[in-house]
Write a sequence for this structure.
């Protein structure tokens, strides 16, 4: 079976109008308008297999939303090839639209003054869902998200977390094969985020749907995505396993050492001291010298225990973004 999403040498160029301030700028814009071209995507290529849950991440302006809008058919690409479920998305064929969903945490598709159920019934008509299938799906999703008793409450009376759960139900009612998620937990408190994570993970595993997630919340990616596609300046910076990303983009490691008595005075020779307390110390060392440092610590008769702390996706992203910031400042 072919991959449901295939992107090859995708490009998107915007024409941006330049205008000087004041009356002179207005008149010049009317009679001699100037433009510059902004390359939002440059030769982007990747494939996503059926059932994958992929984190599509990068700094602001990297091209994430542009890619998502092309994949969902909202934008037309400047060049390259893109196929989603065998369709060219910008053609927006009816059968294609019935098989995808684009759920955005910052935008709602539900009626503000009406109960969510009324909006669901409208979507039932739009997607031509059979009665039995519709009510079964609503009940299943509402039960998973613990909002069955809120289906008849006007949307404006729900909390932000409850509204986001209704948005998820609305986006999944027609059982799409590919789901595009854009900031699904934005503005939510910790517990609401956890509930959304649990639901999305369960839904992906149970239904086997292909899901692409963009989010600035690291926990969203850590909790849900095994594969990461990192985009920067319209180009793919990394595409692979989450753990491989962490390994590649972290320069240092942290060692926690416990000594039998007190921490030796010369302990700083091992690396940068992050914390020192009684007979324990945390030391940061370059990953290239990690093994030699451990061997040197083990040789000491004074040490009692040593532990290399695991690095997180947040650690890796921090270093990547710091590198990007350094590029801007140069």
């Amino acid at each position: 079976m072919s991959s449901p999403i295939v992107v090859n040498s995708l490009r998107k160029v915007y024409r941006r109008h330049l205008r000087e301030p004041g009356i002179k700028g207005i008149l010049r814009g009317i009679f001699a308008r100037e433009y510059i071209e902004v390359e939002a995507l440059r030769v982007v290529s990747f494939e996503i297999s059926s059932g994958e849950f992929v984190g599509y991440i990068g700094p602001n302006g990297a091209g994430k939303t542009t890619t998502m809008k092309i994949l969902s058919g909202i934008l037309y690409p400047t060049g390259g090839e893109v196929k989603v479920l065998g369709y060219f998305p910008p053609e927006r064929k009816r059968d294609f639209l019935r098989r995808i969903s684009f759920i955005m945490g910052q935008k709602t598709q539900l009626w503000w003054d009406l109960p969510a159920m009324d909006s669901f019934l409208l979507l039932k008509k739009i997607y031509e869902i059979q009665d039995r299938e519709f009510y079964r799906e609503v009940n299943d999703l509402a039960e998973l998200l613990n909002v069955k008793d809120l289906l008849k409450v006007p949307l404006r009376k729900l909390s932000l977390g409850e509204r986001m759960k209704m948005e998820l139900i609305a986006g999944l009612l027609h059982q799409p094969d590919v789901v595009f998620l854009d900031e699904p937990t934005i503005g939510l408190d910790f517990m609401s985020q956890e509930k959304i994570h649990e639901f999305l993970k369960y839904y992906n595993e149970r239904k086997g749907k292909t899901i692409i997630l963009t989010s600035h919340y690291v926990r969203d990616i850590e909790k849900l995505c095994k594969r990461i596609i990192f985009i920067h300046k319209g180009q793919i910076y990394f595409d692979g396993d989450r753990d491989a990303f962490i390994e590649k983009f972290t320069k240092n490691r942290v060692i926690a050492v416990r000594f039998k008595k007190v921490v030796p005075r010369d302990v700083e020779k091992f690396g940068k001291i992050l914390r020192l307390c009684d007979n324990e110390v945390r030391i940061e060392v370059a990953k290239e010298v990690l093994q030699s440092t451990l061997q040197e610590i083990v040789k000491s008769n004074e040490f009692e225990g040593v532990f290399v702390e695991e690095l997180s996706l947040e650690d890796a992203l921090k270093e990547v973004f710091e590198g990007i910031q350094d590029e801007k400042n140069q």
About this structure: Residues 190-207 form the longest helix (18 residues). The two ends are 47 Å apart (CA to CA).
